[in-house]
Design a protein that fits this description.
Length: 386
């Protein structure tokens, strides 16, 4: 719903494939809406107001087309169809068209053309690039279909990016991917800070015997590694508990992880923001074991709470975690993760990591908004000179 403060401001059409959880993408979109520097209209293929942030209810979310949230291929195919058939009404009346994409959403440019098109790229499609090998080994359907689907998608992807003038990214890892895949010139990529609400976070130096892994339940987040490593470590003998908490995006995977629960392995689905904050504050340390993550908000949030992170030495988290200073970087092997768990039982090392975490550079929502606005000003200035 538009208010009088929006009158005369540049208008932006922002396409977000789905708003269906309390994830980093939803938080970013909400922050842009609340900033009100631009008159932003949100378009999406799925809006689940029960599972996302309540504050979205203050805005007019325009649902166009339909996309299903189920298994990997069904979700991808339904989104693919929606992108190629759905048209944003009166797109020409906007000053810019922005697509929030983790791959595939950029295909919207075939049906929706605008002279100033920008991609907020969380990553190029992982199944066609960085995680192609991972997905191609998971199930007979993937082994048969993915090689053909990925080749076709990369063909479409190149042509879609040819119609995108600029990109914004949250990490050097994603910038590198865009350049390496020859999707866009590096001079037209703007790096902006990840979106984290530090106003609700305070460093907590006290702790309980809890190792916390907050993340959506989906196979590439590798919660199973957390359980295997925890059980192989000294921590259970010392009275520690492992808590896995997050939105069960992949229900089958969530059920498999839930079946691994025990007295000292606790699985929590659909945590509230209050529960999340409590566990961050109470935990001894956190884990982050996702496959080649694009940016990774969990390590940044964890360090803001003053809690060291044990993360796999892959992807975006390598930019924020300094091994042995504010966290530990390890190989994605249960025994290596277990060794890191054992090491942080050392009081002097643990205190060093806690102090390093508290001193770590912050990437708050104000910086994200400021970076976004500066990037938009440069883009709009460049476009006006054409």
């Amino acid at each position: 719903m538009q208010d009088d403060s929006m009158i005369g401001k540049p208008r932006i059409a922002l396409l977000v494939p789905w708003i269906k959880s309390k994830g980093g993408v939803e938080r970013m979109v909400l922050n842009l809406l609340q900033d009100k520097k631009y008159d932003i209209d949100i378009f999406t293929f799925m809006y689940d107001k029960e599972k996302t942030f309540e504050k979205f209810g203050d805005f007019d979310i325009k649902v166009i087309g339909k996309a299903k949230s189920s298994d990997f291929f069904t979700r991808g195919l339904s989104l693919f169809g929606a992108l190629l058939t759905s048209k944003i009404p009166s797109l020409e009346s906007y000053d810019a068209f922005i697509i929030s994409t983790a791959g595939i959403s950029e295909l919207a440019v075939f049906r929706n053309r605008h002279p100033t098109t920008i991609a907020i790229s969380h990553t190029p499609l992982r199944a066609a690039h960085t995680m192609y090998g991972y997905y191609s080994r998971t199930g007979a359907k993937n082994r048969l279909v993915l090689p053909i689907a990925a080749k076709f998608y990369r063909f479409m992807e190149k042509r879609a990016w040819g119609r995108i003038g600029y990109a914004m990214v949250f990490s050097d890892e994603v910038r590198r991917r865009l350049i390496d895949y020859r999707l866009i010139d590096g001079n037209r990529i703007f790096k902006i800070s990840p979106s984290i609400d530090y106003s609700r976070i305070k460093a907590v130096k006290s702790h309980k015997k809890i190792i916390f892994y907050p993340s959506r339940f989906i196979t590439y987040k590798r919660q199973h590694l957390a359980v295997e490593a925890f059980r192989a470590s000294e921590l259970p003998k010392k009275g520690f508990k492992l808590v896995l908490g997050g939105f069960p995006e992949d229900k089958k995977y969530f059920e498999s992880i839930n079946s691994m629960s025990s007295e000292n392995v606790i699985v929590k689905g659909n945590m509230t923001e209050k529960e999340l904050a409590r566990l961050y504050g109470e935990c001894y340390a956190t884990l982050f074991l996702a496959v080649n993550e694009d940016t990774g908000l969990v390590p940044l949030e964890s360090m803001a709470y003053g809690k060291p992170v044990i993360a796999v030495n892959e992807g975006g988290p390598k930019e924020f975690i300094q091994n042995g200073r504010n966290g530990m970087l390890v190989e994605a092997e249960p025994q290596e993760i277990a060794k890191a768990m054992n090491k942080i039982l050392n009081k002097s090392l643990y205190q060093k990591l806690v102090n390093g975490a508290i001193r770590s550079k912050r990437h708050d929502e104000k910086r994200m908004i400021s970076d976004f606005n500066k990037a938009m000003e440069k883009i709009m200035a460049a476009e006006s000179e054409k």
